[in-house]
Amino acid sequence: MNNLNVNMKNRTIEMTKKFAAASSKFGTEEYKTLQEVRRDYPSYKVVTIARKASKSDSSAFKGLTYEYMEKYIAGHDDEEKSIMLEYMMLRGESEEAEEAFAESASYQEIKDWFLDTFPAIAEFHKKREKMIKATRQKKEVARMAREQELREARRTALLAV
Question: Which end of the chain has fewer CB within 10 Å, C or N?
């Protein structure tokens, strides 16, 4: 269950804001679940946690630095270097920008421009994220199977005594 978690290390029962709101209504499934967990762990403190923003946001790319963008643009620019000139304008590094005392656009604005200019980068990252997610899922399934085998072996050993 993603909405309710027993944290053994901190000795807490953690729940999301949504689950907390639903569990505050007497008779709901969330209320019953919370009461059951509280009976099992009477000394644990009940806390409401805020979910962290997902780091797998498709618009957030690890390693998408200015240096990376410059290398990519250099390798994919036309003969007039028009894309690099646009990039330099955004960074406030072009002659025109320097004459106007223009500041650099924000990283987010430059990143959005870069991904709009080179949509293949965004597609590549989406494809790679799917591959990583599939690998993680396989690893988790294997881990759960090993844990189940260990539980069964322990149960068999205890019954054999």
Answer: C
Q: Name 4's bridge partners.
A: 15
Q: Which of 53, 71, 50 is nearest to 114 (CA)?
A: 71
Question: Could you tell me which residues are beta bridge partners of residue 14?
Answer: 5, 47
Burial (CB count <10 Å: 0-12, 13-18, 19+), residue 161: exposed
If you count them, how many residues does the chain have? 161
Tell me the one-letter amino acid at 32. K
Which residue in the block uniquely carries the two structure tokens 């223009």?
102
39-91: pLDDT as tens digits: 999 999 999 988 665 554 444 577 789 999 999 999 998 898 899 999 988 88
Q: What is the pLDDT of residues 71-83, one digit of tens each?
A: 999 999 889 889 9
Rounded to a whole number of angstroms, the CA Rg of the chain reads 26
Q: Which residue, 119, 105, 126, is CA-closest to 60?
A: 126
Instruction: Give the span between the Cα atoms of 65 and 70, in whole angstroms.
Output: 9
CA distance 109 to 64: 13
